[in-house]
Amino acid sequence: MNVSGAAAQASGGLLSRDRIVAGPGFNRWLVPPAALAIHLCIGMAYGFSVFWLPMARQLPNVDAAACAGQGFLDELVTTSCNWSVPALTHIFETFIAVLGISAAIWGGWLERAGPRRAGVIAALCWGGGMMIGGVGVALHQLWLVYLGCGLIGGVGQGLGYITPVSTLIKWFPDRRGMATGFAIMGYGGGAMIGAPLAVWLMARFTHDGVPGVARTLGVMGAIYLVVMAIGAFGFRVAPEGWLPEGWSPGAAASHPMITPHHVHLNRAWRTPQFWLIWGVLCLNVTAGIGVISMASPMLQDVFGARLVGVDAATAINAGQRAAIVAAAAGLVGLISLFNSVGRIFWASLSDQLGRKNTYYAFFVLGIILYCLLPTWGHLGLPGLFVASICVILSMYGGGFSTVPAYLADIFGTQMVGAIHGRLITAWSVAGVVGPALIAGVRQVQIDHGVPHALVYDRTLYIMAFLLLCGLVCNALVRPVNPKHWMTPEQLARERSLQHEVAATREARSAARGQFGFGGGLAWLGVGVPFAIGLLIALQKAAALF
């Protein structure tokens, strides 16, 4: 895809940035639902695990013994053997890795092309990638699933993730954390909507006992393409010089950790502040995503029969075993809920506490809770264990939603979307390291005869140590040296490349329109699916109690 070539046509055309500068009748509260429409779709990334087992059962009556010796390369092209679950789970790692890479590569282009063009391309890549993946399942060609869902879908993930960030921060200079929290909340909640939908569709499309994965991917891809495109067309950018009514930037600029200046992308990523914040995000995500990846087996291993009120030494029947699995599934539902709600809660709170203090809270509370988790397991207190994990996962989500505002505070708002794109590579690294670390340490201890109820103790203490390292990184963040600020000439050039005009009196009074009936419809469009997903998550969580 020639994204840079498309940038050359950014001036003029339906998707161009200069065509979506807000007029006088626009209301800034119409931007968050546009962002949510995109993030709720790409947030299905967290729910993709619902496809692994059905994908592994696409060929009935296969001789498993004859396929036992095939390697990963064989699985990519086989048409006669079912795929293994480990081979399928690499799809998740692929699109998370490509998410970070694509966001880093095209973040600078996105700032100049604008959120509408980037959002439409993201819709084509994520929705189209899922449809290509569906064709791969139908043809039983795993390489095609990797190409569609993993590579092309990963580009859609990366562009879709960072598309709203710069736009929202410029619309909400008075509430940077809350604004980005709204959008990124959608990424955490996308699985609450998408995973139950996928399960329902697969059951509906099941034929002759074969789960309907191919048609499900095709239908969901089409839905996501349309919804994301609608969100992209809903974006408007703030006119240069626009400020919220009654708000002055003076109070924020007086804070030592909030700069009124701007740092260019090419300078920002070379500063120590960038790499310190990169470390802050990477370490917070590594700890959190490790728990997400093993939450269900962790709860079953640590508490086992005690989840259904039976002594650990007592044999359990099939009904009790099913209840244990249901309770573990309830934890997964709660994780989705707290991961999502934590994004808006902590990001909004950061507007009051400050971004640096919010990350201090993440790391200090996280260290305490990770160190307490083994104790709750030894004492047989599943309620406190679950509550601690929920708080940890709220801070995991909060770390994602707070970091764009942290970057805007440190590097200014002019290129914050592009800088955020580079920083998201921390997520790509953490997405591989976290699950591999917790799964690897668990397996080593099982191989050495450690009881299943104790195999996570050492891992959880390692996670606490990672958070301690993150705490140190956060403590070292200081304001950027003035030598890195853009000069007035450099800033003017960058604004011209982004098709921004000089501030005018009209710009300061623009976008004062009423919220209106259209605003209500926009919020209902994203709010109703989110509420349905929330209800489903709460119903699953009820099994824990």
Molecular structure report:
By secondary structure, the protein is mainly α. The chain has a single domain, classed as Growth Hormone, Chain: A (Up-down Bundle). Helices cover 71% and strands 0% of the residues. The protein contains 22 helices and no strands. The protein has helices spanning 3-7, 31-42, 52-55, 64-67, 72-77, 85-113, 115-139, 142-171, 176-204, 213-233, 250-253, 265-268, 272-303, 318-353, 355-379, 382-411, 416-423, 425-447, 457-475, 488-497, 505-508, 516-541. The longest helix has 36 residues, at 318-353. It is globular. The chain starts with a helix and ends with a helix.
CATH class descriptor: Mainly Alpha
The name of the CATH superfamily reads MFS general substrate transporter like domains
Structural class of the secondary elements? mainly alpha
Largest sheet: none
Q: What spatial form do the alpha-carbon principal axes imply?
A: globular
Q: What is the number of strand segments? A: 0
Enumerate the spans where pLDDT stays under 50 for 5 or more consecutive residues: 1-11
| End-to-end CA span | 49 Å
Radius of gyration: 24 Å
**Which percent range fits the helix content?**
over 70%
Give the number of helices.
Answer: 22
When the domains are counted, the total is 1
Question: How do the SSEs run, as a string of H and E?
Answer: HHHHHHHHHHHHHHHHHHHHHH
Measured by DSSP, the beta-strand proportion falls in under 5%
Write down the CATH topology: Growth Hormone, Chain: A
Query: How confident is the prediction overall: mean pLDDT?
Result: 86
CATH architecture: Up-down Bundle
